[in-house]
Amino acid sequence: MAGRFITFEGGEGAGKSTQVRLLADRLRVLGFDVTTTREPGGSPTAEAIRGLLLSGRARPLGVLGEAYLFAAARIDHIAETIRPALDRGAFVLCDRFTDSTRVYQGGAGGLDPATVGDLERAAIGALMPTMTIILDLPVHVGLARAKARAGTEPADRFEADAIAVHEARRQGFLAIARAEPERCVVVDGTADAQTVGQAIWAAVADRFGLEKRTR
Ligand code: T5A
Fold first, then answer.
1. CA of residue 29 to ligand 1 center, whole Å
2. What percent of the chain has pLDDT over 90?
């Protein structure tokens, strides 16, 4: 794999999409080829599956059926978007990836770890992210941000879950970071977007030996 694969994880409204954009800007200024993408989605077929999942239309399938749909979307996303970009040497910045399945369908979702592990291996093979940034912040802060942005739109299938479920997800991401410290960096997501962006830039520059300049 020639490129570098960075994933962003965390709860609802943690600021992942915002930080993907800010990091992409910084890397492009330095002349790097950057692909930004997201899950579920990131390729035409995976975006269609995203619609099923976030609307709640797949909910009757249960957590196992939803997990299969996330995996199916991921298989297409890797083949169509992630792998080609990595093969040409790009930085790939992805808003959510396999840790979200571990946390949302496994852990907090109740799907047993063996099934989650089997699905992960089937979907991604050896394609673990080079680096994962976990944006951590209190559940109520993230949900308030997501709600403010959505305006009068109703919460999606996963946002609408109970506060205790969101809290379990937060703890799930932190547990992954503790278990895989070489891959994961936890960044405090409560500060303003530029401050969070500088913390992420420092971590990425350090991890990949890039110039630690901030604009
Ligand atoms: N899911 C996903 C699974 O269950 N299993 C899986 O395997 C995968 C891949 C995806 C849903 O699917 C679930 C998880 C999710 O529930 P989504 O709409 O893509 O749905 O949801 P999120 O990934 O949570 O995306 P959000 O857009 O809700 O959150 P972000 O990307 O973390 O936050 P962002 O950057 O869009 O910011 C939200 C708002 O806050 C502001 C922004 O301007 C925006 O208005 N903001 C800040 N405000 C103050 N301070 C900051 N530092 C801010 N940063 C951003």
1. 25
2. 90
